Structure formats: structure tokens, C-alpha cells
Amino acid sequence: MQTLEQPVIATDIREDLVQHREKTLEKLYAKAYPMVLHYVKQQHGSPDDAKDLLQDAIILFYEKVVHQKLTLTAAPTTYLMAVCKNRWRHELEKRNRQQELSPEVGEQLQEESALEAPAFALAAFVDKLGEKCRATLVAFYYLGQQLEQIAQQHQYRNVRSATVQKFKCLERLRKSLQGFSIHHFR
Questions:
Q1: What domain range is 31 assigned to?
Q2: Which of 53, 75, 98 is the last residue of a domain?
Q3: DSSP class of 117
């Protein structure tokens, strides 16, 4: 890991990005890619995954620095690595949730669900909220989608509208569950 004797000043990086964007981004990519690749491979990812992650992180970094929305307290590569680690963790969680069940596991779950009907009572409450609320809550909490993606998929005017709608749906769900304890859903 890189250590710094003096804090990195985001304005210096901003000037470099504005004046020599391509060259500066290439340098950042060249410095960060080996670290990101090593981390992603350790976490069962591919070189393509590492490239995608780093490209997304560099775009995020670039936008934040140019729009002066980032205060760096570490080296730029440290920031990029942190963003990549966080996004890779989210990606792995998403992949794990979306893996298809084997037929044997699916049959076993169906048998168990017949015996454990109360466990699915919560899903019934979510379904009663309506299709748009159900889809929004499932996309955010179960599939781990970003609000930007939810706003686009469900045709909200903007991310703020999606956030407000998610909050309203969650509040409706909470109100409908007020009279129940956790034991009702076990």
C-alpha cells in the first residue's frame, strides 16, 4: 500500500485531469490495475471483472474530482482500490443471490415451504403493497440494485423520486406489520 508524507491535494489532481485528462487517467489505471486484478483474482473474479471494476471506479473518481466533490485523504490509487473492493463485494453478493437453484434444491425448498407457511407470510404482506412497491422493494433489498437503476427500470422521474417511493413503500409495509412479532414469521 502507498503511504504519503503529505496529504494529496485534490485540486492538483483536478488540474492534471482537466489539462491532461487522457495521460493522467492512463497513469492512474496503470498504477491501480495490478492491485485491483490481484484482489479480484483472490476473490474468484476474472481479469475482465477487474477491468470493468477499475473503469467504473476511474469514471467515478474523475467525475468527483472534476466537480470538486472529493476530498482525498490518501493516494488516488488507494481511493480507487477502496471503491473497487466495495463494488466487487456488492457484485459478489448480487451474483450469489441471482444464482439459479439446482432442481433438487428447488424441490426441497418447495417441500419445506409447504410445511413452513408462516415463513412466507412476509412475502404476502409485500405482495399486498402492489406491483410497483413490491418490485421496488425487491429490487433494492433483495437484488441489491442501485436506486439509479431502479429509477430507470420503474420509470421514476429521477433518483430522488425512486428514493421517496421506496421509503413510502417501506413505511406502508411497516404499518401493515405493526401488530405482529418476529415469531409470526418463523
A1: 10-98
A2: 98
A3: G
In angstroms, the CA 180 to CA 172 distance is: 14
How large is the angle between the packed helices 159-176 and 121-128, nearest 10 degrees?
130
Judge if 92 and 118 occupy the same domain.
no
**Taking a C-beta distance cutoff of 8 angstroms, is the pair 121, 181 a contact?**
no
Q: Do both 88 and 122 map to the same domain?
A: no
Q: Using the Cα atoms of residue 44, residue 47, residue 49 and residue 51 in order, give the sign of their dihedral.
A: positive
Q: For 29-80, write each residue's pLDDT tens digit.
A: 999 999 999 999 998 899 999 999 999 999 888 888 888 888 877 888 888 9
The domain tally of the chain equals 2
Q: How far is CA 65 from CA 6, 29, 71, 161, 168, in A?
A: 18, 15, 8, 26, 34
Q: Kindly report, residue by residue over 88-104, the tens digit of the pLDDT.
A: 998 888 877 766 544 55
Are 145 and 86 found together in one domain?
A: no
**Is residue 161 a contact partner of residue 131, using CB atoms and an 8 Å limit?**
no
Q: Give 177's contacts (C-beta < 8 A, 6+ positions apart).
A: 122, 125
Whole-number Å distance between alpha carbons of 35 and 81: 7
Q: Are 137 and 173 in contact (CB under 8 A)?
A: yes
Which residues fall within 8 angstroms of residue 59, CB to CB, at 6 or more apart?
Answer: none
